[in-house]
Amino acid sequence: MCGSCGRRSVKDWTWPWLAGPRSAALVASAAQRLSTVRGIRVRPGAGGWDVALPTGARRFAVTLDELVRAADVDGREAPAVDVGATGSAPEPVVTDNRRSLTLVAAPGTDWAPGNRNWVHDLVDDPAAAAVPIDTADEPAALAHLHHVAAQAATAPFNEHCRIAPIGAAGLGDAASTPWPDLPDTITAADLAPVCVTLAARLRSLDARDVGLREARLGLGSGTVLVIQSCGAHVLLADRTPTGS
Q: Which of 169, 144, 160 has its CA nearest to residue 235?
């Protein structure tokens, strides 16, 4: 976020529905409450969050994922989401004008995890609308999805593009499992602590875990927030109509 408007310049997976100074303050409050470090102080700052440890050391986080690491929010120890714990709601959702890319099943697609040229090809081609995923078998699909998720969370991909929710047909045999202990319905005021909790749980996953998981959070007014992750990386997060 910039110092004047509070918006993050880096588009992490909570953007655009947690953007602005009020959202940053709600996220900071949730991170401080769920931190395993007693006496820690988390405050929104210009471009991210300032984390002050009781030892006097200071850390700065630009994204939510960086924040849960800096504040040591442990997903394995975090309490169940306390729906209603916050008293104010974030700003209205910012219009997301990034190009939406659909994941398409393509058994036998030739791809190399170490080759990031495909990211620049997609970003530089305004007509590109799909990301082919090797669905020859479940291990191949999960490995490919994990690679795509890692790249989708960083620049230049997340500055210009986003992944559309995986449809009911899925991607071959790669099926997602629901995140446990998350509420089915939340209010706008609960969005920040829910996202902090989910980010902490992603952080706690074993590095070898490439499982596909999904959280569906009802926001009211016929809208649901769908968050799909592969391993410790959020693959996509999008608001969709209820029932889609």
A: 144
Q: How many helices (H) and strands (E) does the chain have?
A: 6, 10
Q: Is the peptide bond before 54 cis (omega within 30 degrees of 0)?
A: no
The letter for the amino acid at 212 is L
Written as one letter, the residue type at 15 is W
- Would residue 127 be called left, alpha or beta, if left means φ above 0 and alpha means ψ between -120 and 50 degrees? alpha
Do residues 188 and 125 make contact, with C-beta atoms less than 8 angstroms apart? no
- Nearest CA among 37, 83, 44 for reference residue 60: 44
Summarize pLDDT for 39-52 with one digit per residue, the tens. Answer: 999 999 988 999 99
Sign (positive or negative) of CA dihedral 199, 204, 210, 211: negative
Tell me whether strands 48-52 and 41-45 are parallel, antiparallel or unpaired.
antiparallel
Strand runs (DSSP E) across 99-180, as ranges? 99-105, 130-133, 161-163, 177-178
Task: Give the CB-side neighbour count of residue 221, counting CA atoms within 13 A.
Answer: 6
Tell me the C-alpha distance between 187 and 113, whole Å. Answer: 39
Contacts of 148 (CB under 8 A, 6+ apart): 103, 131, 133, 163, 230, 235
Amino acid identity of residue 89, one-letter, is A
What does the pLDDT look like over 137-155, one tens digit per residue?
888 888 888 888 888 888 8
